[in-house]
Amino acid sequence: MNRWYRGMMVGFLALATQAWADAGTPVVREPDGTSTAARVELLWLGQSAIRLTTPGGKVILIDPFITQNPKTPEKYKDLDKLGKVDLILVTHAHGDHLGDGPALAKKWHIPLVGPAGMNQSLIALGALPAEQAIMMNKTGTISPLGPMIHISMVHAEHSSELDWVNPTTGKHETHVGGEPVGYIIELENGFKIYDMGDTGLFSDMKFIADYYRPDLVLIPIGGNYTMGPTDAAYAIRYWMRPKYVLPFHYGTFPALSGTPEEFIKALGPTRTKVLELKPGGTVSF
Asked: What ranges make up the beta strands (E) of 216-285?
């Protein structure tokens, strides 16, 4: 290899390495900041409510507990301010996750994907027509937004009762909510997100990480109903080891007392970058 060719190769590799590093650096913006076009943009709306914008411009809402969410910024409680939505994913039937899902699905005439038992109840109760209540179960994979976006359903360790206010009597009723789940979302550029939903520790988290290899994990840290900071840190440090982790499902109600500071302390030194957002804040990849 001559000196000129060697120099060209070294220069090319340096530029490629820098480009890769720049592309892999997330850009975090505060709730009042402006965002620019990015390959992936995630807006956290408080609790577990996420608006995900894909590289191809599709918008996915996950666990859209918005209008009754005390942590959602006021401007987003007008559902029109969320903009056009293409798909809704719900991890389980509890009100702080199903939330405004049926209303938004009807508003935009779009599918709401969820555990089969939950969606069967929504159909039976008249909350959604069957063509909009897309039923799945664990290890299933669908591509409702086209062949470049894949959504897989995985296990979660929680409960999933559906609390329903009967419009005739005004009374609360409890209906079948199916089993709680998490989602692996693979986007057009191959970026993978693991939304854990509500869950406690379970050892198959390691299998899920090994099999799907998510780049970003959205993990509950509030405690009481889900993992607290110590359990969540154990899962990330020893079982999952993603590039990025976003702690959520904390601080919305008094029982959810875990904090990002406690999570970071329990996590200790790690290559995983912890993304700290305030409700209304965004991160771009």
From this structure: 216-220, 244-248, 273-274, 282-284
DSSP alpha helices (H): ranges in 24-138? 95-98, 101-108, 116-124
Q: Are strands 181-186 and 172-175 parallel, antiparallel or unpaired?
A: unpaired
Are residues 44 and 71 in contact, defined by beta-carbon separation less than 8 angstroms?
no
Single pTM value for the model: 0.88
CA 166 – CA 158 distance, rounded (Å)? 25
Task: Give phi and psi for 14, each to the nearest 5.
Answer: -65, -45
- Interval 185-244: pLDDT, tens: 999 999 999 999 999 999 999 999 999 999 999 999 999 999 999 999 999 999 999 999
How many residues make up the chain in this entry?
Answer: 285
In terms of residue numbers, what domain contains 114? 38-284
**Total domain count, the chain:** 1
**Does some domain include residue 13?**
no
pLDDT for 281 equals 97
**By three-state DSSP, how is residue 165 classified?**
strand
**Cβ contact 283:275 at 8 Å:** yes
Mean pLDDT, range 258-266, rounded to an integer: 98
